[in-house]
Design brief:
The chain is mainly beta. The chain folds into two domains: about 375 residues, Distorted Sandwich (Beta-galactosidase, Chain A, domain 5), CATH 2.70.98; about 80 residues, Immunoglobulin-like (Sandwich). Helix content is about 0%, strand content about 45%. The strands form eight sheets. Strands 1, 15, 16, 17, 18, 21, 25, 26, 30 and 31 form a ten-stranded antiparallel sheet that branches. A hairpin with a 2-residue loop joins strand 15 and strand 16. The longest helix is centred in the first third of the chain and has 7 residues. The chain is globular. It starts with about 25 loop residues before the first strand and ends with a strand.
Length: about 525
């Protein structure tokens, strides 16, 4: 966003995840060339209540499908299908309305990295073309699909993941702008950015990087247990380059994302790489007030904001090389910012101290209680310590600067660096490569999330006289849930989990604290929630 005015979003967490090598064989290749702080008014927020269930445990189907207004998509014949795995990859087209921005793009070169990028002549555009209206624009897309997820990518629009649809309900996790409209935000050298939506790859700088509008090459890979798209920004050896592998497993409702950052040059290079997910979590307009942000730590750094009630000494100055002092996310000037109902104007924050020992969680996420849909990002804080959250806030003035339908989004960022600030840059030596895998886990009807792995989420909600337990599996798993009070076991359940099913139980109990454990059949603890 505006480096000195608006800021982007992200959120962060912790976990050691294995790096999956990118296989060589290809089935299809698609190449696209071309005044003083104000006293805060505290808005009281209660945790959204969960409808009581019977005391017996139940396996619940996913919610009733909702009616959405999806972006127009035309599907062509499947490229490669594997009926035995019920997974396929195929080409499609995505049509969006677009303002005539392309004639006002010119090639520029970043002297630090030698990357050629598209810069925008904003003055010429606004004088000559902005009033000429918008026109349909069609992009070639690649779609990966199994029983549970439909994932649409647009290689020519920065290689972004454009949509992730949870098929049992028809809900789209990602924000999709219905119009491509040049904004004044992004890197100052580009003087423009498209809030197209989806998940974009920000490289080699902070903010949105230089390649969000570049044409990326794309290869579709058939594998024994899934299908992948490998996206590449460049094959050149005189600049840093990125490869991102997006994998949809067979019979599973999660997505694996495996970036690989390389420096093939003879010089050390200071770099940043971020994944930026623009989210609406099933909403079709504004972000609902009952949206919860789940951070790995309560300590955050403010990046930028238009909220005058935030103390000025915690807001970094223009051209700052490092963040200011950390503040409490749950009590910033009297506001609990974990709930969107307590937000005011735009705000961006980074998770602070990502290597702190108390960061036991390996995920960051957001959950929309109105639409009963959320998302978790599972990652390694050692490899990708950056977590950033950005949202416009209900009182933001100017949504017409990025869209025509008054819609909005939140941004959840994950980065190779701790923050956007220059002192957090990563230096890659000549020939050095960094690679990792992170996961996107949809959270359908999970009542938020208390702990998560790449394919499993658990939620523990306590009320004075009871506890409500919810578990959701995104892949098949034979496991045991165990509820404990200190060392005493209260109850256990042996369950064969299937995707698109939920376990839920409500238990009358006043003892605290409680622990809910996910164990394997041998009693090894896989995941634990303490509440």
């Amino acid at each position: 966003m505006l480096p000195s005015l608006f800021v982007t979003v992200a959120a962060l967490v912790a976990c050691a995840v294995s790096v999956t090598p990118i296989p060589v064989p290809t089935r299809v290749h698609i190449a696209t060339k071309t005044a003083p702080p104000l006293r805060a008014t505290v808005i009281p927020i209660r945790t959204p209540t969960v409808a009581p269930t019977n005391t017996a445990s139940v396996l619940l189907s996913t919610p009733v499908p909702v009616t959405l207004a999806p972006v127009a998509t035309n599907v062509s014949q499947p490229i490669a299908a594997a009926p035995k795995n019920n997974i396929m990859a195929y080409e499609a087209s995505v049509r969006l309305d677009a303002y005539p921005y392309e004639p006002f793009l010119r090639d520029e070169r970043d002297p630090a990295t030698n990357i050629i990028f598209k810069a925008f002549d904003r003055a010429a555009y606004e004088n000559a073309a902005a009033a000429s209206g918008r026109h349909p624009k069609t992009f070639r897309a690649i779609v990966l699909e199994n029983e549970y997820l439909k994932v649409t990518l647009i290689p020519a629009l920065g290689g972004r993941i454009f949509q992730i649809t949870y098929k049992p309900t028809g809900q789209n996790l990602l924000y999709n702008n219905q119009v491509l409209k040049p904004t004044p935000w992004g890197m100052p050298q580009q003087d423009g950015w498209l809030a197209a939506g989806g998940i974009e790859w920000a490289f080699p700088t902070q903010e949105h990087g230089f390649e969000w509008n570049a044409a990326w090459d794309a290869q579709i890979l058939r594998e024994a247990n899934g299908v992948s798209v490998v996206l590449a920004d460049s094959q050149a050896n005189d600049r840093p380059r990125v490869q991102v592998r997006v994998t949809l497993p067979a019979h599973a409702a999660y997505l694996a994302i495996s970036p690989r950052i390389e420096n093939p040059t003879a010089q050390p290079l200071r770099l940043q790489f971020w994944t930026n997910a623009l989210l609406n979590l099933g909403a079709t307009g504004r972000i609902p007030a009952q949206t919860e942000f789940i951070f790995p730590t309560d300590a955050v750094f403010v990046h930028s904001t238009a909220n005058e009630w935030i103390p000025g000494d915690v807001i970094p100055k223009d051209n700052a090389r490092m963040p200011s002092a950390a503040v409490s996310f749950s009590n910033l000037a009297g506001r609990d910012l974990r709930w969107y109902a307590n937000w005011d104007n735009y705000l961006g924050v980074f998770a602070a101290n990502p290597h702190a020992p108390e960061l036991a969680q390996a995920f960051v996420g957001a959950y929309n209680y109105e639409n009963r849909l959320g998302i978790a990002r599972i990652f390694s804080p050692q490899q990708t310590p950056g977590v950033k959250l950005f949202a416009w806030g209900p009182n933001f003035c100017c949504r017409d600067r990025f869209t025509d339908d008054d819609s909005e989004y939140l941004e959840l960022w994950g980065g190779m660096t701790r923050t956007f600030f220059p002192d957090d840059d990563v230096t890659l030596q000549p020939g050095e490569m960094r690679a990792w895998t992170e996961y996107i886990l949809p959270l359908p009807d999970t009542n938020g999330v208390s702990a998560a792995t790449s394919d499993f989420a658990m939620t523990v909600q306590t009320q004075p006289d009871r506890v409500i337990l919810t578990a959701y599996a995104a892949a098949r798993r034979d496991a045991v849930l165990v509820l404990k009070h200190d060392a005493r076991e209260i109850k256990r359940w042996s369950i064969s989990f299937q995707p698109a099913q939920h376990f839920q139980e409500q238990i009358a109990i006043t003892e605290r604290p409680l622990q809910l454990q996910l164990q394997d059949r041998d009693g090894n603890v896989i995941l634990e929630v303490r509440n």
